[in-house]
Write a structure and sequence with these properties.
- The chain has 8 helices and 7 strands.
- With about 250 residues, it is of the alpha+beta class.
- The chain folds into 3 domains: about 60 residues, Winged helix-like DNA-binding domain superfamily/Winged helix DNA-binding domain (Arc Repressor Mutant, subunit A, Orthogonal Bundle); about 45 residues; about 100 residues.
Length: about 250
C-alpha cells in the first residue's frame, strides 16, 4: 500500500470512531505501531486535527470533513454481500433495513458503478431461518437496545428445560446459529443461549443499568480469559467460552 493511501485510510478510521489505538490501526493496515506513530505525527504536522496520545488512542477533532468518497468494486461487493447476509439471517425488520441501505447507496453511485451491485454473484440462501426465529431475534434486539430484561424457558442440548430471567447484552452469529449473550439472574453469571432453543420468550417492562461485572465488556473479558488458544467459532453455541449453559 502506498504511504499516501495509508494516511488517507488512517484519517477514515479516525473519523468514524470515538477513539482508535495505534495497535488497532497497525493491525488493520498491516504495518508496525512505530509506522502508525510516525504517520500520526506527519498528519498532525500537515494540519489534520488529530487528538490523543500514544498508549491511549487517537481521534479527529469535530468539524473536520473530507470530500465525498467513491466505493471501489470490492467495497461494493462486500456491502452487497453483507446486506444479503443480514436479509437472510436476521429479522425481517433488519433485513428490510439492509436492503433499503443498499438501495440508498446505489442511488448515490454513478450509473456504471451502480451496475456492479446488480451484477454481484455472491448470494446467501434465504430459507434457513424460520419465521418465528426471525421474530424472536427482533424482540431480543429491541430488548438489548432498550435495556429491558427478558424471561424465557430454555432447552439445553439434552432438551432439559429451565426457566431463565436475564439481562440481554448482545447477539452473536456463529455461521449456523444465533446466540444471545446475557447476564443470567437465575444463575448469577454470564451465559450464552441459542435462539432456536428459547421457548416462550417474554420481554419484561423491567429495565436494567450497566453494573460493573455484569456488562458486555465484562462478558467479553470473561470469554477471552476462558478461551483456549486458537479457539474456533464452532465451539461457541451454547457456551460462554468454555462455560456451559446449565
Amino acid at each position: 500500500m502506498r504511504r499516501a493511501d495509508r494516511l488517507f485510510r488512517i484519517v477514515q478510521y479516525l473519523r468514524g470512531r470515538r477513539l482508535t489505538t495505534a495497535a488497532q490501526l497497525a493491525q488493520w493496515l498491516k504495518v508496525s505501531e512505530r509506522t502508525i506513530y510516525r504517520d500520526i505525527r506527519d498528519l498532525s504536522l500537515s494540519g489534520t486535527p488529530v487528538e490523543g496520545e500514544a498508549g491511549v488512542g487517537y481521534r479527529l477533532r469535530g468539524g473536520f470533513e473530507l470530500p465525498p468518497l467513491m466505493f471501489e468494486l470490492e467495497e461494493i461487493e462486500a456491502l452487497t454481500l453483507g446486506a444479503r447476509m443480514v436479509e437472510a439471517w436476521s429479522s425481517p425488520e433488519l433485513g428490510a433495513a439492509a436492503v433499503s441501505a443498499i438501495a440508498k447507496i446505489a442511488t448515490a453511485l454513478p450509473a456504471e458503478r451502480r451496475t456492479w451491485i446488480e451484477a454481484s454473484r455472491t448470494f446467501v440462501p434465504q430459507f434457513h431461518i424460520p419465521k418465528q426465529l426471525g421474530e424472536r431475534f427482533e424482540h431480543m434486539r429491541s430488548a438489548i437496545r432498550e435495556r429491558r430484561k427478558i424471561q424465557f424457558v430454555y432447552a439445553d442440548a439434552a432438551r432439559k428445560l429451565s426457566e431463565r430471567r436475564v439481562r440481554p447484552l448482545s447477539l452473536y452469529f456463529w455461521g449456523e446459529h444465533w446466540t444471545l449473550a446475557a447476564w443470567c439472574e437465575s444463575r448469577d453469571d454470564f451465559r450464552s443461549f441459542r435462539l432456536d432453543r428459547i421457548i416462550r420468550l417474554q420481554v419484561t417492562a423491567e429495565h436494567f443499568v450497566d453494573e460493573t461485572g455484569r456488562r458486555l465488556a465484562d462478558y467479553i473479558r470473561a470469554q477471552q480469559a476462558m478461551a483456549p488458544p486458537r479457539e474456533t467459532p464452532s465451539n461457541g453455541p451454547d457456551r460462554a467460552r468454555g462455560r456451559s449453559t446449565p
